[in-house]
Every structure is written in C-alpha cells, then in structure tokens.
Amino acid sequence: MIPDEVVAQVAAQADIVAIVSEHVRLKKTGSVWRGPCPFHQGTNANFSVVPGGGYTCFVCGEKGSVFTFVQKRLGMSFVEAVKYVGEKCGVEVRETERTREGPDPREPQWELQATVGEFFQRALWDAPAGQAAREYLASRDVPRPLAERFGLGFAPRELGTMRQHLNGLGYDDARLLAAGLLVKREDTEEPRPRFRDRLMFPIHDPAGHPVGFGGRLLGPGEPKYLNSADSEIFNKGKILYHLHQARNAIRRDERVILVEGYFDALRLVAAGIESVVAPMGTALTEAQADLLGRYTRHVFLLYDSDAPGQKATFRAADVLLAKGLEVRVVTLPEGEDPDTFVRSKGREPVERLIEGAMDVFDRKVQLLERAGWFADLQHKRRALDRLLPTIRAASDPVTRDLYLARAADAAGIAREVLLNELHAVRRGPGGRPVARAVDRSGERGAPVSRAPGGAGRADAPGPTGGFAPLPDEGLPPGPYRSEVEQGNAEQTLLRVILTQPMWQDQVIEELGKIEAEEMPEGEGETDALGEDAPGVLRDPIYRAIYDATLRHGADAPAETIAEALSPLAIRTYEELRGERDAVVDARQSIADAVRKLRARSLDARLRALESLLPLASTDEKDRINLTIKRLTDEKRAMGVGSWGSVRRR
User: Fold this and answer.
1) Residue 535 pLDDT more than 50?
2) Three-state secondary structure readout of 533-590
3) Superfamily for 107-227?
C-alpha cells in the first residue's frame, strides 16, 4: 500500500491540467480549462478542469481527481495511477508493505527465461536456420515489427545450439534441466532441448515477468503447440497469454476479448484491439476466470466458428458464469477464425461483431432452435440437458432466473417442471450422483473423477520406455483406479490392446457396435452446440489412452503415444503396457468386458428414456414405456440383471 501522506503529497504537486492535456485538447476559459469530454467522445467544450482541483463533464457527469482521470483513461489501478502521477511530478512513490525482505527469489528464473527469449529472437532473425520460420511468418502476414512487438523467436532443430550458447553465459546443464529447457530421456543420455524447430511465443505473468514459452511446430507432427513445463514461475492453468500487456486496456475498455490462440491475440492487437487474451492452448480454468474477474466483469468469447470452437466457447462460458461474470459470444462467419477474419476484414467489422455479440445462453438457445432440437420429444430432452448446466453455472441469481425462463419458453414446458430438473441430482450407474466437469479438457462428457490429473495433452514426455521421467509431485500414489462404473472393463480392453496389439481391430469393432446403439437416429459426431458424441469409454484417462492408440496404433512407440497424454495418463499407459501376464485369454477377456459395457450402455439408454417421461404426452408415454420394457428384457437376457430404478408412468 501507499501511505496516505505520500498520496496527499503527489496530489498536491500534480499538475492536473498538464496530465489531462496529454489526452484532451484544453483551452483556458477564465480560471478553468475546457475541452471536449474524452469519456463520452464529446465535441463541445463541456469538460472542465480546475487547476489544483479535479475535472467535471457537465454532459455525461464524469468527475474526479487527477488519479481518477488516470485510472479511467489509462485503465490503471489506484496504486498504478498514484505511481504514474508521482513520476510525472517528481515524487518518489513507494509501497510500504512487502511480502518479503530482499530480492524476489524468482528473479534468477525470470532472468533465465529472458535470456532464452533473446536467444530465440536472434535465432529467428539472424541465423540461417531461422529462414523457414521467417517464411512461415510471412505466409501468415506477420511482418517483423509485429513479431518483434510480441517477442517472437525460433528454437533451432540442432541439439546443441541453445545449450552451448547458454553454457557459455554461465547457465549450466543442471539449471537448464531444472527450468525444463533441457530434458533427458535417461540418466546416461545427453540433455536435449525441450523446444526444437518451433516458432516461439514468450509468455509473461500478469506483472510482466517472463515465465515460459509456447512453441508451434513449423511442419507436421504432434503436438502442434508445446508449452513450457509447469514450474514455480509457470503454470499454464493460471496464466493468460498477453494479459500483462492487455490489463490496462481491459480496465479502460471495461471488457476483455477471450480468443483461443496466440495468433488470434496477435492479430487483434495488430488491428488496434488491445484488450485481448488467450488461454495456454487448453480449456479455460477456474484460476484463469478468477484472473479475468480482477480486471472486468464483461467477457466476450471470440473463438473459431467450427464445432470444436463452439464446444470450447460454451465450456469456457460455464466457467466464467460460475465466477459471476457476464459472458457474450461473438459469432464469426462460418469457416472463419479470428486470425483470418481480422486479417482480411480489418478492425471495424470485428468491432461491429463485438457490438452485436449475444448473451451466451441466448446463443445456445438460438443454435438449438436452428437445428430443430425443440421440435420433437427426444431432441427436446437432450436440448434441455445442454442448457441446464449453463443455468446451474450462473452464480448470479437474477441471471439464473432469466435463463430458466428463457429455456422453459424455448422448450414449451412449464417453468416448474424445468425448475425441478434444475435442482435434481443427476444419477449415474448404480444410482450414484454424477457431477459434470466444467473444464473437461476436451474429453467426451466423462463424469468427474476424484483422481488428480486429467486427460489433456501432456507437455512433458513420459516416465519409461525411452522418454523423460515424470515428477511424482501432484500424482496420486499407487496404480490408477477408475471411479467410473465398469471402469475395470474399460481397463481390461486397454490392457489387451496394449499388450497384444493384434486384437485392436476387434476391440474397435465391438466398441463401435455399442456406440452405434447409443447414437440417437440422425445424430452425427457432434451435436448442435459442438459437443462430441458421448463415446463408450467413460473414464477420461482410459478414453485419452484409447484415442491416442487409435491415432497412432497400439504398437506405436511409447514416446509417440505419450505426446497426447497428461502425466497421469502416461503413467497409467505404462502400467497397463507392462501387465502382459494379466491377459490369459484375450478373446474371453474382450467378450466379458464388452458384455459389461453393453449392459452399462443399456442402463444409460433406460435412464434417458425415463427422463423423457415428464415431458411426454400420454401417447408418447405409452411408446416410451414399451421401449423401456424391451430394453429391460434385453438386459435381463444378457444375464446381468434388470434395471430396477425405472419408474413407468
């Protein structure tokens, strides 16, 4: 904090006329100065500044001190405004309370990241190896001044270039390994750079300290984007790209524009829209939403217009609504993303789209209506299932009530029926309550697991099989244990295909049959809001491993599989791959596991039918009850028992 006497000293010595004159053309009239108001973009001299006093606009009513003017005009906090004015008038401003004595212990790490950033920049612009990166930037219409403004660089492909340069500056291998800039597969192997042949985006914390990098591959391969490993100064779930430069603009504009990627942010800033930030290539987290809430309550989501972009939009919106923020969706023309649209159209069309942005819930209802999801009973039920999580996420009671009324009206049902659904506890297999994650990191609607970790992309290679060891910190002890019902059946199938890859095709075929039975008629891979089809494997860790083996093949090198997995998923993958002796009869293991998963699928279909009953007419209820009986008989014939929780009406 700044002592009151220092604030008073700055206020007494500040020349408010000189400071305001930097932003407003003032003309002396008697004892005051007048000009057009900068806050409502006035054209007449209705804005009055009193020397040694404050300012007032007689049209819009804005008034305050020199500190207020700086805060509102430049988007600064009060402390920042006092320091700014103090610098203008020659008064040294110091905060009296400090969290620690002496220098910040993180300074050596910030220094190292800054030094590496300088190396990457020189490699981009001065080294012959950077030619491909320079051509890539040219192909994306990123001129050198813009690239330098964002500190872009290039990580060479050669193994020893960066290491030798940093060693020569006094940074030994131990320090580079600790910072995650070098990695080792095994203790006997020479260290190698974490980033190779990538365009590098430096990442800063909100205070502007360099804390890490995001690297984009220039050619084919996975992962396309790779972030620095988590460390004391870098956690990708707690940092937003470009926030350190955007925070004053966010306060000034009273809005933040959230985009998906680095290039989207770069392009908007180049067009003059500065209040823009991006997450670190992952789903928006609660910590990032909290961070945004410190600067504004108004968030505009400007994501890609395709199905994955829609899915990311609505998932981010639920996280933001839970923090009490106002969320609006900016809709781009089909096939566009922020980078391409701004590059071809410029600033003004983007600003018009932002001005016309819709409340996120209205946008959800609009998409569902256009896709005909309120036209028949089954789709209406699923439409409400898409809307209810957003209603529940809204922490503001007025907003929640408005959303409730809007959904009831769109679905043509009584508000009381929807209110009962809103407060109902969704039940999973066996009647257990099932929570749904707001941030599922791209997984297919899996129930939340209490096990730490997730199924998102790993930024670090894995523990064994020829790739870098994982830190144990943050991972649960012992083998992974799924909390999803029939998770043991999912585990069995994965163990079979990882230890005996020749059975992979049969497992894929059997799971495909179950998925086809679950898929409602006429449904595709994604629904009207961009959500993925549910998928047969419900456990997020097992699903991530299965998807990775589908992409690369179960017999692919371990390092290749690990590139798409989180640390917990990597460890689980290694555990399953090493349990060859646990598979005695692969054919019978597959048959038993598939039977259990099909029974679980029947349970899910029966619960879905029961959820239709409150919305159904008498004739529709008769048809639903007949289907319930048929599926119950089918499950009983499988020898796995009946589904006793169905209540026919």
Assistant:
1) yes
2) CCCCCCCHHHHHHHHHHHHHCCCCCHHHHHCCCCHHHHHHHHHHHCCHHHCCCHHHHH
3) DNA primase, catalytic core, N-terminal domain (3.90.980.10)
What single DSSP character describes residue 433? B
CA pair distance 208, 198, nearest whole angstrom: 23
Per the listing, tokens 């907003």 go with 399
Per DSSP, the residues of 355-423 read HTPEEHHHHHHHHHHHTTTTSSHHHHHHHHHHHHHHHHH--SHHHHHHHHHHHHHHHT--HHHHHHHHH
Mean pLDDT, the chain, as a whole number?
A: 82
The pLDDT, as a whole number, for residue 539 is 87
Element spanning 270, H or E: helix 262-270
Bridge partners of 49? 33, 55
User: How distant, in Å, are the alpha carbons of 30, 36, 66, 87 from that of 27?
Assistant: 10, 10, 18, 25
Q: What is the pLDDT of residue 440?
A: 31
Q: For residue 122, give every residue at least 6 positions away whose Cβ sits within 8 Å of its Cβ, in sequence order, or none.
A: 153
pLDDT of residue 559: 75
Greater confidence (632 vs 519) lies with 632
Rounded to the nearest angstrom, the gap between the alpha carbon of residue 536 and the centroid of all alpha carbons in its chain is 25
- Compute the distance between CA of residue 206 and CA of residue 246 in angstroms, rounded to an integer: 9
Q: Strand 256-258 to strand 55-57: parallel, antiparallel, or no bridges (unpaired)?
A: unpaired
pLDDT tens sequence across 471-481: 444 566 678 88
Q: Return the CATH class of domain 4-89.
A: alpha beta
pLDDT at 465 over 50: no
Domain ranges of the chain: 4-89, 107-227, 487-637
- Please report the sign of the dihedral spanned by the C-alpha atoms of residue 571, residue 577, residue 581, residue 584: positive
Domains 107-227 and 487-637 share a fold: no
Distance between CA 174 and CA 182 in Å, rounded? Answer: 9
Per CATH, domain 487-637 is 1.10.860: yes
First CA to last CA across the chain, in angstroms? 65
**pLDDT top residue among 579 and 475:** 579
Please say whether the dihedral angle defined by the alpha carbons of residues 80, 82, 86 and 89, taken in this order, is positive or negative. Answer: positive
pLDDT digits (tens, 9 = 90+) for 435-455: 333 333 333 333 333 232 333
Per-residue model confidence as pLDDT tens digits over 149-160: 999 999 999 999
Cβ proximity of 262 and 241 under 8 Å: yes
Q: Under a CB-based contact definition with an 8 Å cutoff, are residues 560 and 463 in contact?
A: no
Q: What is the pLDDT of residues 49-78, one digit of tens each?
A: 998 889 999 888 888 999 999 988 888 888
User: In this structure, is the dihedral angle defined by the CA atoms of residues 469, 475, 478 and 481, taken in order, positive or negative?
Assistant: negative
Q: Which of 185, 165, 163, 159 shows the shortest CA–CA distance to 174? A: 163
Average confidence (pLDDT) over 323-342: 94
Plot region of 553 (φ>0 → left; ψ -120 to 50 → alpha; else → beta): left
